[in-house]
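Case study.
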Amino acid sequence: MADAKTRRRRWREPSVLPGFGPAFGFTLFYLCLIVLIPLAALIARPWEHGFGGFWHAVSNPRVLAALKVSFGVSLLAAAANVVTGLIVTWVLVRYDFPGRRLADAIVDLPFALPTAVAGIALTAIYAPTGWVGGLLAPLGIKVAYTPVGIWIAMVFVGLPFVVRSVQPVLQDFDAEVEEAALTLGASSAQRWRGVILPALLPALLTGFTLAFARAVGEYGSVIFIAGNMPFKSEIAPLLIITKLEQFDYAGAAAIGVLMLAMSFVALLAINAIQLFLVRRGAPA
Amino acid sequence: MSLKVENLAKQYGRTAALNGVSLQAAKGEFLALLGPSGSGKTTLLRAIAGLEQPDTGTVEFEGEDFLKQTPRERRVGLVFQHYALFRHMTVEKNVAYGLNVRPGHSRPPKAEVKDRVAKLLELVQLDGLEKRYPAQLSGGQRQRVALARALAIEPRMLLLDEPFGALDAKVRKDLRRQLRAIHERAGVTTIFVTHDQDEAMDLADRVVVLNGGRIEQIGSPGELASAPASAFVFEFLGDCARLKGRVDGSCIRFDGFEAPIVNAGRATGEAEALFRPWETELDLEGKPGVPVTVHDILAKGAVLRAECRSDDGRLFEAEFSRDHLPPAARPGGRASLRPRRVFVF
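After joint prediction, the assembly is written out as follows.
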């Protein structure tokens, strides 16, 4: 779709807005200082025993199992957040009810709460002796100290990302577009599926990405509820901490580098889909 | 009569958007709803489309009670000012939407949909742009897609809400002509909302002038121009000036001169006369008329417009063809201004 003109790399667009030089310089400097240099240090760290040492550290079955739990459950949690976050956003934007502003503020709580507090609170209610855990236990469902518990903690911390990404887009959604679909004879399900959802898709994907990234990196709230059983409910960040406590810095950094690489590939892939969606539905 | 609206009223909070509106449209008629913003024209259109529920009144279409039907059941084509296209769909998909959402048994087969879309795009002169997205089109092209999309469902009525309001003058004029041609070919009853009197007069068989939620007048463009029903209609249809005088039969007397009344019939007494710049004369100072100072002569298309101000500061305008500018009309000069004929309401 992009013609030759837009595909050609542009270095600097002539602009009437001043300050390109200093602002661009600052951006580069800042990104290096805050993001790139620490990450470079991380990438440089695990090679003291050569590639063999690195491979030994990351090919450990326990490490692989933890990575599988971390990324797998994060994906499931982000997916769940897309669905529930969309419903919550829909209600917050489309309906007016008493306490709407309060509900809107509650969405942000998982952002603000120290993650350890969240973890302890979740554990308390989902443990077999807790409010919810007690109700589920007779049904044979165990939440706390299983991957399901990890999933719940990750859903908890990821919710605001989906809501806050989708909310502005839904608010700006042109009511006339929906009315046009209505007069053309579309049922409410058809309008929802064919007109509204596609318009929200880029924002939903952004929310998914953010929730997923947050879940992969989540530590505090997960470790309390996870039970941390190797090969079952142990997440990769916990393994890193364990290795650090044993002064195995190279091993910890090796897992870190692998997580970094996997996250980067995942984010890059999602961004590619996003770019396609946004190009297609560029603001008319 | 194909459309019959009776006594429609709609209240928003404490303001009445519609205040007892009744009108009828014959099959195949092209009706324009003309009025300033806030006159209720869009509310009326949306009530007919089913997007707005009126408080009281009836809307009947070919004997059916429209108010009991959902917008889907009414099957009217609606075109919005800001296009309201589906951005994530190609032009082709946009136009086909109304056909593709039909329930299984009444949905035309794929080949037929494709065929109909192609015909419609040809009708609005967009053939070749099937695979484009709305973002890749100009405003005029987008509105033509919206028009084709509305026509695709073979609407029983075509409703347009200021469809050319966001477009520039040249494109507007082009689309006006196209819309007129499409209406003549399709023969569908069409209602068109606008605040532009030129557009209404140019396009419509009959014009409905709305003001403050009420109908001021319904008539053909010719009737509106020659026999406006109220001062509002007269003022809305073009520039005009006012002058106080005393009605005497079919004449109105001013200070030292008089003018014939077009819509005679008012009782003798004080009244205000309204008249057009192109029915105004400028004479040399001292002749009968309102003493004015000519401020400026402006070129306005085929005519020249003299802007004058009376000694008490009121603005008057007089228009002349380029070859017939009176000697009194020169900037800075004094002159006597006199209406050739006036309306009294």
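Observations recorded in class. Chain A is about 75% helix and 0% strand. Residues 51-281 of chain A form a domain with the MetI-like fold fold (CATH 1.10.3720.10). We will return to this complex in the next lecture.
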